[in-house]
Structure formats: C-alpha cells, structure tokens
User: Fold these one by one.
Assistant:
Number 1:
Amino acid sequence: MLIKRSPNGIDLPFSSEITPRAVFENRRAFIRQIAAGSIAGGALLEMLSREAFAQGAKAKLPAQRNAAYSAQDKLTALHDATHYNNFYEFGTDKSDPAENAGTLRPRPWTVSIEGEVKKPMTLDLDALLKLAPLEERVYRLRCVEGWSMVIPWIGYSFSEIIKRVEPTGNAKYVEFISLADRKQMPGVNSRVLDWPYTEGLRLDEANHPLALLTLGMYGETLPNQNGAPVRLVVPWKYGFKSAKSIVKIRFVRDMPRTSWNRSAPSEYGFYSNVNPNVDHPRWSQATERRIGEDSFLSRKRKTPMFNGYDVASLYTGMDLKKNF
Amino acid sequence: MAPKQVTAIKAAVFVLALVPFARLVWLTLTGALVEPLQFITRSTGDWTLYFLCITLAVTPLRRLSKWNWLLKVRRMVGLFAFFYALLHFTTFLWFDHFFDVAEMLKDVARRPFILVGFIAFVLLVPLAVTSTNAMVRRLGGKRWQWLHRLIYVIAPLGVLHFWWMKAAKHDLNQPMLFVAIVAVLLALRAWWAWQKQTPARAGVAQR
C-alpha cells in the first residue's frame, strides 16, 4: 500500500484505516450540493471551492476504537457534522464556520500549558500527536440549543496531559483558551463575545477519563470548522464547554470566568452539565433533535441526565439546579 | 392606473411573495439543509417580519410617492405576513411540541419571548379573518380601519419577540435594524397625525 505524505506534514507510519462510511457520506453530500446548486447558480462553484478550502488541510489520523468509551448510536453524517457548527470566531450562523474557516492555519501550532503545575510545557502539534496513543471514541454531542450529533472523535484522555505537567496542590481548575486572531478569524472582529474564547473545568472533571483532548474526527485530523488542530470534548456537558482551536491551557486556583458565563451568567453556568431538569431560560432542555436522523415526522427525543454518561459521582452533594 | 395594470401588479406581488416559501420547500426536499427544521423556523419568522414591515411601509410610501395604487396591494401583503406567521407558529407547534397543545401552552406561559410572539400571532388572526371585502362592508370602513390599526401593536411585538430571542447572544444587528425600520414607519404616522391636528388647534383653515 502506498503511504502518501499529507500536505500538512502529518506523517504516520501505519497504514490508514479509512471509514468507508465517511467516504460514502462525503460523496452523497457532494451530490446533494449539486442538487441544491441548480438554483444557487454561479455561487455553487465558489461555495464548493471555499468549503473544500475550509476542510482542505485534513490528513488521515488512524486510531483504534476504544469500545469502552464508545456509544452505540448511529453516527452523524460527516457532512452534517462539518456544516452545522457553532464556532463564533468564524460567524454566528451555523453555516458560517464551514464557509469562513478556510483562513485558519492549523500548522504550525503550539499549545502552552502553564499555571499551577510543576512542569509547564509548550507542545507543538507533533508532540501532542505523539504524547499518548490515539483512540477513536464515539461520543454523543448535545448542544445547549437543543440539537445533538454522534461523532467519532480521535484523541486521548486529557488526564494524559495532567499526568505530565504535574499540577501543584493549588490547582483546582483548568482553563482552556482558544486562538483569537483577527487575521485568521473574521468573527473575532465582532463583539458577540469577549475574545479569546475561554472555557474551564474543575480539575477532577478534567481528569475524568471521558474528557478527551481531541485531534481528529471521522478518521482524519480535525476540519478547521470543528476546532482544528486541537480541541477538548467533554461529552456529558453542553457542546460549548468544549473549547476549540486551543492555544493555552492554564491550571488555576480559582474558578475561571468562562466566555459564555461572562456574556450571560443567567443562561450559561460554569458547569453546564447536560441536564433535562434545568431549562434554559428561553427553551426547555428536556428534549433534543438528533441532526440528520430525526425529521418532521418524529417527536423530539428525551435528553438523558449528563447526556447519558455515568459521571454523577463527580457532583455528589451538589445542587445542580443552583450549579447549572 | 388602469384596472388591468393593477391586476398585473397584484399577480406579480403574489408570485414574488411566494418565492421564499417555494425556496424553503425546494431546499427541504432536495436535502440541501443540514437542519431543515431550524431553517424553516428561522426563515418563516424572518419573512413574517419582512412582510409586516412592507405592510407598514405602504402608507408612507404612497404619501411620499403619490402612487395610490400601492393601497390596492396592501391587504395582500398583510395577508402574506399572516401566511408566514402561521407557518412559523405551525413549526413551533409541530417541530417543537409535536402538536401537544398542553405542552405548547405551558411553554408559552413559561417563556416570555414565546408569549410575546404568540400574542402577536393571535392579534394577527382577526385582521386576517376580516380581510375580505364582505367583512369590510359588514364592519363599516371606520371600524374596519380601527381594527386594522392593531398592526401598530403587532409589528413592535414581533420585533420584541425577535430581539428577545437574539438578546442573550449579544447578536443584535438584525433586531436593531427591525427596530429602526418599524420605529421610522410608526414615527412618520405619528408626525402626520400631529401635523393634521396642529393647524386645526391653531384655528388655521385647511381648505
């Protein structure tokens, strides 16, 4: 088998394991766009080329599936997962990230890990890719807006990072800071949020094996619009808790002020665990719509506590209505 | 303007007003949308507001341009506002609550921005029902006109509903545009009403 060096330089020695499904979905998506394009006319070519650009820098990223951490749900189509995104650095509409994220340069990239740690370090992408064995995990993703997807992520537990930097006794929380570069990210020029995008977890939450430092999805490196080149995925919390395009990780004493919490504290709490019993002030969280699967004819599906993940022990004795 | 021309204009407006609906159906059927349900909800809401604004713009435009035929398409444009509002409300009842009316009412009561939108929709209903010539005759022109001034309440409520929905995300560019447009259209009316009164009060003969 021919192993080709990818354009962005990720060169892994083992032969890749392409999910035929992803390829299939890609082709179908293309045909669907052609169909849609028959009214969009001349805009089609430009749209397709921009989309190709946005996803352009991807490379195969082989990983063994970890069955212990994989949901049995049907996977969301790759096209849906890459064309319905919240990534305000590229615009506030769901279709904006796929259209605008082509300007993001995921390489070279470094992540600095600092704060209350014995061994602060700055890791480049290759160091991150080699830090621990990559696993594929199929997680449910529940957005605070009431929709959900099922995505095969690739990465390893964030606890691998924690182990290596050795937090001091003062470290109680971990703060994740995303890139905020006006040149690469048109949305940063708007004032919808205070940039850079900041998220945070309690140290024990970050240390939970389900919290995934994520470098890829669907057998490939992350598309720009999904948070390339490195993001977090915390499947029992609403999607916005999982910071994208991370450049800095700080271990801190005090609870970090997160972007959404600063913007609307009554609507977006620090914990933001998926919780069907705590409504968002403007809509119910009891149900959700699975993108690409649920249609006009289906009633919305019930949202399970913690998105169905067994993490209740992290919150023993806490009032999750107050600490939403 | 000749009756024939008015009929042609009315037909053209009718077809144009159906374009957003046709586009929505087309995009949904071809599978071009990742999340058609959200798209339908959003775009029917947007078009309700557009048509409310267009309806409100008819009178000022007619006064400024002296195109009296504009009045002849106003009722149809208003009915299209109701058409899109009805679609918008149906998506809420269908996609969000799957025709569970009890659930829907609970939601309306619990969430002020939905309540505001719901009130605006309910107020639109009598206007749509009385939109026929027979109803104008039955009510009498004056009373009919008074009833249809409900639009001055409905449009701001619709904009408030949209503003509230967008508010927490600090994404207020669009809502602010609607506030500006509706404010100008209503202010013009207030100004004209005030002008009409002032000379009378001052005892100046108008005719």
Number 2:
Amino acid sequence: MHERKGVVSSPCQPAANKPQLTLRFKIDEKDFLIAGESASKTKKALQQLGLKQEIVKNIAIIVYEAAMNIVIHSNHGEIKIIIAPDQVVVLSEDVGEGIPDIELAMKEGYSTAPNEVREMGFGAGMGLPNIKQCSNELDIKTTIGFGTTLRATIYLNPADTKQVETGTMYV
Amino acid sequence: MTLKEVQDILNAEVICGEHLLDREVKTAFACDLISEMLSFASSDTLLITSLTNPHVIHTAEVMDAIGVVFVGGKKPSEDIINNLDHGNIPLLSTPLLIFNACGLLFSNGVEGCTRGKAW
C-alpha cells in the first residue's frame, strides 16, 4: 500500500451490513497540490473499482473542489470518500472560518478567495455550484468560527461496484 | 482533426505525449480558471490555457482532457513535467496567444464546449 503525506487508503468496517471502502485525505492549509492529487488518486481508485467514466469524473470533481475549499478557506481538514455498492459519499470536514452565507456561496461567480489564489487559477466562485452539479444530494453544515462539514452523495448502479465487496484497494 | 493537425495549425511544440498525436479533436475549451474547466469542459476535450502550474495538469486528468495546449509560448517547468503523472495527456506549447489559437482551431472545424454537453 502506498502511503504519503495526506493520503491514506484503508478498508474499514462495514456499516449497516454494507461492505464499504474509505479513502482519506488529510489536507493542510495552503497545501494546494494535495487538492489535485487527491482528485487524481480518487479517480484512479474508482476506475479500479470499475465505476462508469462519468461517475468517476463527477466524484473526482467533487473531491477536487472540496479539497480546494479546505485549502483556501480553512485551517485544515480531511476528506473521506466512502464507497459502498450502492453509493459513494464524499465527506469533507474542516476546521476554519465557516461559510457566513451558504446561499450566496452557492451562486456561480461569488468568491471570497484572495488574489494570490486567483492567480493560480482558483477562486472562480464555481466550487460549491460544481459540487452540487456533480452530486445527487448535497448537505452543508457550517458554524462560523469553527468550520464546515460537506456531505455529497452519488448513487450508483450496484452492478457497477462488485469489487467493493473484496474490501481491497490500493491508491 | 487530429492532435497532429492541431500541432501543425498552431505551430506548436510537443512537450510530451508525441505517441498520442493521432487522437481526434472534436471540441476545445479555452480558460484560465480551474473551476470553469471542471464545470464546463466536456470529456475528450482539448484544453487551451495560459496557466502552466501543476494544478492544470491534475485538472486535465480529472476532466479527461484529450490534450493541453499552453499558449504564448509558455511551458510548465521541468519539475512539473518530470514529477507529475501525465502519461495519457499530451502537452503542447504554441507561440500564439489564446484568441488567435482558438480562432484558428475554430475556423478549421473544432467546436467549443457548451454547458449542456458537459456531462
């Protein structure tokens, strides 16, 4: 198993009798590279599981955007990708400033990212709208001064994820 | 057209992925914002950008880009080229600026992405 900074892959205990696998990415403040890396590694892992290309792409985009949000707007956080036969949940939890106005943050083009972030190509104000577009369900809980939890669910055709039941995966 | 034809039309240098230039290019997307690439660009699209940081390579990989053209003669640094896994994404660099590069490709039949086609 390959393991490096911010990247952990491990089988975990089944919940509600459903076999599942969890990928975890720890994300530090200003660690911009980990965002793209976590999306790339998620994509490769999901491809190994035989998920459809468009679903893999959507989940990778969710992970990318969620990771960038942690990098830009929080002190630190973690993203878990919980893969079950019938669904994939991307759970993003951060410790940070929180989102003052979620409705405003969901508007395309609205961004509070600083200029140095925009110069890298980020901070377009598309992050949360992109996540919503790629998810079947999206739930955001935020507390000002403490942080934000984002839960994006993508439903799968169970026939697509037979290999999840083996509980073994390498990223 | 093929990526090889794109290379010729844009007078582009191939940075890596020479063996993949027979790929067919039907659509292209030009942008310098990562989230817009992720939101609007459809799969199998040629990405045209002046950003050369490693995030662009990751983004191209995530969005299933068919290749990346860097404009204005820009290229990612040697570190980026050597350290990132970009095996399936050919990288090209054209001396043309973004408007001229897009205009040439569009006038030769390459279409732009539309949001409805994104997924």
